[in-house]
Amino acid sequence: MNKIQVNTPRRSTALYRFENPGKPKLMLVHGNASSSAFFFPVIEKLAKDYDIAAPDLNGFGDTEHSPVRAPTALLDWAEDLNALADALHFDRFALLGWSLGGGVAMKYAILHPEKLTHLLLLSPMSPYGFGGTKGENGEMYDATGWGSPGGFANPGFIQKLKEQDRGEDPLAPRSVLKGLFAKGWPVDEAHQELFVNELFKMQVGEDYYPGDYIPQAAFPYVLPGARGISNSLAPQYANVTAIKDISPKMPILWMRGDQDKLVSDQSFSDLATLGMLGLLPGYPGLETFPPQPMVSQTRTVMEQYKQNGGSYREVVFEGCAHAACLEDQDKFVKELKDFIA
């Protein structure tokens, strides 16, 4: 599969393009620590039925990159997609966002609802962001984003990213990617190598992944900063609950794995969960700092969308984690095709 570059007024965007005139237009948006190439196995099963564009977001893959400003990152990524859609003459299309890409897709739907025929969310981030909120209605602890890990990440993993370590160490990128799946790698060795290679293309540093953070003396020891990819998910920047009020409304398909440990009601990337499990000292307790109920928050916003005249369907993939599109490809393709007939 050949990747192309498309120049827009905003940037030069790298994407995989499978032109299929007359077929439904479909744009696929990847998540954090990945690229459009992570869709390869399913693109091969969709290419004959859809007119497909799968771009790399700023900071990932082969797209021209510029520093990621956390307060406006979701908006910036969404407007990059819109500029690309205009360049490709995607006047009306279905948009699928995976994980971080789900947040970008929701932001796009808020900004440009008239362009979308369908919205598909695969293991999406909560509409309230990642960390720093509690309860199904996404109450923030305070305006600083307290409780969100922001740009904090395991320094061992960051170092191995910089070194492009291809080993099997628990902090090596290959092992971290494998942890996205419920039952080990669901793809062949060629695709495994592709995914690792693509992960190494991600820009690393305070302006990209993971970003900066503000050290704190007390639990949870960090506050989110204002630079970089992971900070873009902090609740003061990443709230996309306005999707419930968009007009016109498009049908939404929300897909998730029942064994997802990254986006769940007790995410292993949530500082509260780590504290609760004794992995982060000084945890103040469940009453003060419960894990963010990410899935329940998403369902609450989807129900509000429905109450406001929209429609959505939640599909749970049994035995799958954060990458249901790869872990159960046949079910994923069937659900997508049934949804975008």
Description:
The strands form 4 sheets. Strands 1-2-4-3-5-6-13-14 form an 8-stranded mixed beta sheet, sandwiched between helices. A two-stranded antiparallel ribbon has the order 7-8. A two-stranded parallel ribbon has the order 9-10. It has helices at 40-46, 73-88, 100-111, 155-163, 173-178, 189-199, 235-238, 271-276, 294-307, 324-327, 329-339; strands spanning 3-7, 12-18, 25-29, 51-55, 93-98, 116-122, 133-134, 139-140, 204-205, 209-210, 213-215, 222-224, 252-257, 312-317. It has a single domain, classed as Rossmann fold (3-Layer(aba) Sandwich), CATH 3.40.50. The chain is an alpha/beta fold and 341 residues long.
How large is the share of residues in beta strands? 15-25%
CATH topology assignment: Rossmann fold
Oligomeric assembly: single chain
Give the CATH superfamily. Answer: Alpha/Beta hydrolase fold, catalytic domain
Which whole number gives the mean pLDDT?
97
pLDDT < 50 runs, ≥5 residues: none
Structural class: alpha/beta
Which bin fits the share of residues in helices? 25-40%
**Main β-sheet: number of strands, strand sense, barrel status?**
8 strands, mixed
Q: How many separate domains make up the residues?
A: 1
The ordered H/E elements are EEEHEHEHEEEHHHEEEEHEHHEHH
What is the CATH C level class, in words?
Alpha Beta
End-to-end gap: 25 Å
Q: What's the CATH architecture? A: 3-Layer(aba) Sandwich
Shape: globular
What is the CA-atom radius of gyration, in angstroms? Answer: 19 Å
What is the total tally of β strands? 14
Question: Going across the major beta sheet, what is the strand order?
Answer: 1-2-4-3-5-6-13-14
